[in-house]
TrEMBL record:
It holds the Pfam family PIG-L. InterPro entries: GlcNAc_PI_deacetylase-related, LmbE-like_dom_sf. It comes from Halohasta litorea. PANTHER family: N-ACETYL-ALPHA-D-GLUCOSAMINYL L-MALATE DEACETYLASE 1, N-ACETYLGLUCOSAMINYL-PHOSPHATIDYLINOSITOL DE-N-ACETYLASE-RELATED. It is an enzyme of class 3 (hydrolase). GO terms for molecular function: hydrolase activity. Keywords: Hydrolase. This is PIG-L deacetylase family protein. Gene3D superfamilies: LmbE-like. Its EC number is 3.5.1.-. Transmembrane segments: none annotated.
């Protein structure tokens, strides 16, 4: 499976889908990170981009591309839709992990809209949550995580040292959310997603699990 994960800022992908990315790589799937901005909040953009690349290394991601839009100024127009679509076409993507529209951050919302438009022909599109996601986020799909893959997600988030002041990035916060989503999915830990499109009726299932790797 060819997978792409699209985040508005460095650390968005790790927060929303880091455990799932680790699972994909463990089963041999190809994964690309596409980050729309170089960040800038609390730290110079160059440092945040470096941290993003370190996080991608922790998760063993095949490659990472940074578009370079300004923080808080991700557009929603024909240009960004085409740029994202070019990446989807280049890797012949099977599944895309993207932001949800149910978010209070304008970059996240625009990233979601542009990704949905670009991924109109992609078989599977799943939207992840973030700390700024609204309570209206309604997941229908869960990836079950073992403790090993949850810890790998947390290790990737820890590479973003410039963001350490943010309490929601603490390990206990990540574990708490994973436990909450795990209870919903009848497993120990999980990441939750809204289904934008999926190839088959797999909602409310755990398509990626540790057992599948045995």
């Amino acid at each position: 499976m060819n997978v792409i994960a699209i985040g508005a800022h460095p650390d968005d992908i790790e927060i929303g889908a880091g455990g799932s990315i680790a699972l994909h790589r463990a089963r041999g799937d190809s994964v690309r990170f596409l980050i729309l901005t170089r960040g800038g909040e609390l730290s110079p953009p160059a440092k945040r981009e470096t941290e993003a690349r370190e996080a991608a290394d922790v998760l063993d991601v095949d490659d990472i591309h940074v578009m370079g839009y300004d923080d808080t100024k991700v557009p929603y127009d024909n240009e960004i839709v085409k740029r994202i679509d070019d990446h989807l076409t280049e890797i012949d993507v099977d599944r895309a992990y993207i932001h949800t529209e149910e978010d209070t951050h304008q970059d996240h919302r625009h990233a979601a809209l542009a990704s949905i438009a670009a991924g109109r022909n992609t078989d599977e599109v799943l939207a992840f949550e973030s700390p700024s996601t609204r309570s209206s986020f309604d997941p229908q799909y869960y990836n079950s995580l073992s403790e090993e893959f949850l810890e790998r997600k947390i290790d990737a988030i820890r590479t973003h040292k410039s963001q350490r002041e943010k309490k929601y990035l603490e390990a206990e916060a990540m574990k708490g959310l994973a436990r909450f989503r795990g209870r919903q999915a009848n497993t120990r830990y999980a990441e939750a997603f809204q289904v934008i499109r999926i190839r088959e009726d797999q909602t409310a299932t755990h398509e990626l699990t540790t057992e599948m790797l045995d």
